[in-house]
Write a structure and sequence with these properties.
The protein is an alpha/beta fold. The protein has 42 helices and 15 strands. The strands form four sheets. Strands 2-3-4-1-5 form a five-stranded parallel beta sheet, sandwiched between helices. Helix 25 runs antiparallel to helix 26 and helix 37 packs across helix 39.
Length: about 1000
């Protein structure tokens, strides 16, 4: 290395706690409980506000969070310019505890914290927001800390909780600073919002409430207490508190509960219900936030590991060292360009932000490690990098070679602290795989004392060269990167399997002109030679410049282990995409004329996606399947979906009211939130097995291939079955009362074999709700039953439109064909007439002649039928006329006039009806429409029961004698279990779906 540049291990000083622990940083996982309550030797350094500010990098998100709290409690009359409730929902290792401790210091030691760099940024940001400085000392705020991960439900700790037992009482004890009189005054009011607000106000100071890891308490904690009353009181208190905090001035609340999508904690059904309840309350009263982002890695690391920032001249000189190798044409063509080294374009700034780490290593941690399930982003990275920095600094002090920047090949796997921090970081979850990689590190890379290992031996045995002293660990560095690229799983997120040849060569690079591209080629070729280098290496040969060779350290995994490793690399985007693809493939339209799938767009609101999806199709019954990635119902997460459906059906208010005309003929298939979670898990399993089948270990092993194919088929079947089950909700526009309001109604399928993806099953379910007519149900009489007085006189086009746009009219199984047939039959039977604009009756001789698009033809009630010769009622045979044109009762016959182009009236179909001479009897025989409703309590009411028995016997007789031609209705009753079973059997024989519930 060029001696004119101060090496990083001299330019930077590790913090004392890291040096004292030999690189093992123990308190990287901060504890809010210890910061607040620990005493003496157990009190952590970060319990001091000055030290906390010293080690904390003021990320944008953390600064925003503390600014919200500062404005809320210390912003004076402008406290409403900040939100009251904030939820931290990041996964493990995301900085939640660190943020809670910062909030605690803000309330407990405001002057000390606001004097740090972090506090100064908070002060300035708050001043900009409210237009004036914060109150001095933030108005002496009072803090209430409920560290729920250190609480046992129902069992208080005397020193901390006094007489308190439940969560509300513990809150009061801390709120009133152990004032027993005030505690007793409010103790009974655990769900009284007014009293809780009064208690908070009684402190007469701003109040900050911090509830840490609340799921530990309300989840398995309350299950273990096994006290129903305690669980009810604690949940009622949390619900009330979340509402109250928004209403009391100068009160802020910070709640830590990891988002359910990322928290894999196993919960009982009761605990899951409590979690969902609290989730919905937090969604309603607060906003979720995070405190670190991917771009904060380097700054957080440097602030946490080192005492001070490096000198500017050191950064400038170090950046200049790399100029030659980064601009070299050969290196650029064969290494930098193929690996997409974007950090080269702004090298000095990128290096400055990452120093002493190489941007390539930082990119690996940010873009790959952080995406692996189980890797605790900030916490794991700090442990790995702290151990690495310490080990390399010790090398530098002992006169050994140390890289100018710590790159992806420079993690010293010979150091047990580094190796175990890496393997225990969550990048590898399976214990057997961890053990295998631990062995591989020693055998293939470097052993514990640096004297052996396949790669290390090559470095030690290499003959002297011009670059040997400037890059003495070239092979070890290449092997280390292959090791890192292999432990993240068979497929690196966004990269593929293992390490590419250009990446491996990049890991060996040094800022020295003596180490050329040819030297790098030689080092890598020797390393991957199975006879000379790493024997456990799986090599995928390259195919031209665009597909270089790839190297993967294999642990001889079984199919199950292989799938497990791949599973952790699957992204949510991949998972949601395969679910959407399968849902589209499984969906069938059935009687619906059109089938549509609305694809999720995470960048837009669900309501906006539906509003612009082009769903309002005229004269078309539509089954619209909503993408589970963005839409679901139930489980406390349905609000955005319901809002979107409300807008899509034209039921929105104000700016959300869209001009939707055909909402009645659109039916939406939506997944159940809880069932979606199951389907998502199975989708990951399916994808993992699908990708595993493509791995060389499977393709080159007939036995593994057979196992893989079988498991893939089973996973596919399970996913399809779960996805069908997940689609159990149907949403549609309803108006059962023609004079009532339209509203969004839902149909839920409770049986496992019924899915909303099947248009036929959806239609059957809607038929039971009278939303649609099933096949063969829509007759002439059904048409008349659904027509209202004001429908007569409407054009055929309007009548047709009404059956697609008016929710009071059921949808038709055959669409226009059914409507044409019903109108034709009604006209043929003399139940309806079709007239033109002048009111003249029009003849139709076939259903196809009913022109539903006509705006000139109208429906009318049947007109009196007269003979065209004598103007008398229609009769059979000759007219009764005398020779002098008089009828037999003496009236004069109308003289014949010129021919008039008047359509003839079609005769009724011969159905055995009485002749005109028998018209009184025929009038008595015409059908009548019957409608009635009732509600009756039959307990201890024998007469009432007998009366209804007689009524239903009359129904039975009418049905048995075929005197009823059309039925429509819903019957709800409370019945004994034995009789209910008999009725259920009868309903199933009729194909009618009934709802039976135990009461």
């Amino acid at each position: 290395m060029t001696t004119s540049v101060t090496p990083w291990w001299r330019a930077l000083k590790l913090r004392q706690e890291i040096r004292s622990a030999s690189g093992q940083i123990d308190d990287v996982q901060m504890s809010l409980f210890r910061a607040v309550h620990a005493m003496g030797a157990d009190r952590p350094p970060y319990a001091d506000a000055d030290y906390y500010g010293d080690i904390t990098h003021p990320t944008e998100r953390l600064t925003d969070l503390l600014t919200e709290i500062a404005v809320r409690i210390g912003g004076g009359d402008d406290y409403l310019k900040a939100r009251a409730v904030t939820r931290l929902d990041q996964g493990m290792g995301g900085g939640k505890s660190h943020a809670c401790i910062g909030a605690y210091h803000l309330a407990a030691n405001p002057r000390a914290l606001l004097g740090t760099e972090l506090g100064q940024k908070v002060t300035e940001r708050a001043r900009v927001r409210i237009g004036h400085p914060l109150a001095g000392g933030l108005g002496r705020p009072h803090f209430v800390v409920l560290p729920c991960d250190n609480m046992t439900p129902g069992v208080g700790v005397q020193e901390l909780d006094g007489p308190a037992i439940n969560l509300y009482e513990r809150f009061l004890w801390r709120l009133f600073s152990r004032d027993y009189t005030l505690f007793e005054r409010y103790r009974r009011f655990w769900s009284d919002k007014h009293k809780i607000a009064e208690a908070i106000s009684a402190v007469n100071r701003p109040v900050l409430i911090i509830v840490d890891e609340v799921l530990d308490y309300i989840g398995n904690g309350l299950d273990g207490a096994n006290q129903t009353d305690l669980a009810a009181q604690d949940m009622a208190f949390l619900r009330a508190l979340l509402d109250v905090v928004n209403d009391v001035p100068h009160v802020a609340m910070l709640v830590v509960m990891i988002a359910s999508d990322t928290d894999k904690t196993a919960l009982s059904p009761a605990a899951q219900a409590r979690r969902d309840d609290l989730n919905s309350q937090l969604d309603r009263n607060g906003l979720p936030t995070t405190v670190t982002g991917v771009g904060d890695f380097a700054d957080i690391l440097r602030r946490r590991l080192f005492d001070a920032e490096p000198a500017g001249e050191v950064l400038v000189a170090t950046a200049a060292l790399y100029k030659e190798v980064l601009t070299d044409k050969t290196w650029s063509k064969q290494v930098w360009d193929p690996i997409g080294a974007a950090w080269r374009r702004n090298w000095r700034a990128e290096m400055t932000s990452c120093y002493p780490f190489h941007p390539m290593l930082m990119s690996l941690a940010q873009e790959e490690w952080s995406k692996v399930t189980g890797f605790q982003r900030v916490r794991s990275t700090i442990r790995i990098f702290a151990a690495t920095v310490y080990a390399l600094q010790q090398r530098g002090k002992s006169g050994e070679w140390v890289p100018a920047l710590i790159g992806p090949g420079d993690l010293p796997l010979s150091d047990s602290t580094v190796r175990e921090a890496l393997l225990g970081s969550g990048l590898v979850e399976d214990d057997r795989t961890i053990a295998n990689y631990r062995s591989l590190a020693e055998i293939e890379v470097v052993n514990h004392d640096g004297s052996s290992g396949a790669a290390r031996r090559q470095d030690l045995e290499r003959q002297s060269s011009t670059w040997g002293t400037n890059n003495p660990r070239a092979a070890e560095r290449a092997a280390t990167f292959i090791f890192l690229a292999s432990v993240v799983g068979t497929l690196r997120p966004g990269r593929g399997r293992g390490a590419s040849a250009p990446e491996v060569k990049a890991a060996t690079s040094v800022p020295e002109a003596t180490y050329t591209m040819t030297d790098a080629d030689g080092v890598v070729d020797e390393l991957v030679n199975p006879n000379q280098g790493m024997s456990a290496l799986d090599i995928t040969p390259g195919q031209g410049n665009n597909r270089p060779a790839r190297y993967f350290l294999s642990t001889r995994l079984t199919h199950r282990m292989l799938v497990k490793n791949i599973r952790r690399t699957i992204t949510e985007t991949e998972r949601d995409q395969v679910i959407a693809d399968i849902a589209k493939r499984l969906a069938s339209s059935g009687p619906f004329r059109d089938l549509q799938f609305v694809t999720a767009d995470p960048q837009r609101r669900p309501a906006d996606v539906l509003a612009t999806a082009g769903l309002d199709t005229a004269y078309t019954t539509r089954l619209i399947v909503l993408d589970p990635a963005q839409y679901s119902l139930r489980n406390g997460m349905e609000k955005p979906t319901l809002e979107a459906l409300t807008v899509a059906m034209g039921l929105g208010q104000g700016a959300q009211q869209l001009p939707v005309q055909w909402a009645s003929s659109a039916v939406y298939a939506v997944v159940n939130t809880q069932q979606r979670a199951l389907a998502r898990n199975l989708a990951v399993e399916y994808l993992a097995r699908q990708k595993a089948m493509q791995a060389p270990e499977i393709q080159n092993d007939d036995e593994l291939k057979t196992i893989g194919a079988k498991e893939l088929a089973e996973a596919k079947t399970q996913l399809e079955r779960a996805l069908k089950r997940a689609y159990q909700h149907v949403a549609y526009l309803a108006q059962p009362d023609p004079d009532g309001e339209r509203y969004l109604d839902q149909l839920t399928f409770d049986k496992d074999n019924i899915t909303a993806l099947d248009g036929m099953l959806v239609w059957k379910g809607l038929a039971a709700r009278d939303k649609v007519f099933d096949t063969g149900q829509f007759s002439a009489k059904a048409l008349l039953h659904n027509l209202r007085d004001h429908d007569y006189g409407k054009t055929l086009s309007d009548i047709r439109a009404a059956f697609y746009s008016a929710p009071r009219l059921p949808l038709l199984y055959g669409g226009d064909r059914d409507l044409q047939q019903a109108i034709y039959d009604a006209v043929s039977q003399g139940l309806l007439s079709i007239v033109d604009g002048a009111g003249t009756e029009v003849e139709v001789t076939a259903p196809g002649q009913v022109n539903l698009a006509s705006t000139g033809l109208r429906l009318a009630k049947p007109q009196p039928r007269t003979c065209t010769d004598c103007d008398q009622p229609v009769h059979e045979g000759r007219c009764s006329l005398s020779a002098d044109d008089t009828v037999d009762h003496g009236s004069t016959r109308k003289p014949a006039g010129p021919p008039v182009d008047t359509p003839s009236v079609p005769r009724q179909r011969e159905t055995g009806a009485p002749s005109p001479d028998e018209s009184p009897q025929r009038e008595q025989a015409r059908d009548r429409q019957l409608a009635f409703s009732f509600t009756k309590n039959l307990l201890a009411n024998g007469d009432g029961a007998d009366g209804f028995a007689a009524l239903f016997r009359a129904f039975y007789m009418a049905l048995d004698e075929r005197q009823i031609s059309y039925l429509q209705g819903t019957l709800q009753l409370v019945i004994q279990a034995d009789a209910a079973e008999q009725i259920q059997q009868c309903l199933e024989e009729l194909g009618i779906s009934g709802t039976f519930k135990e009461i």
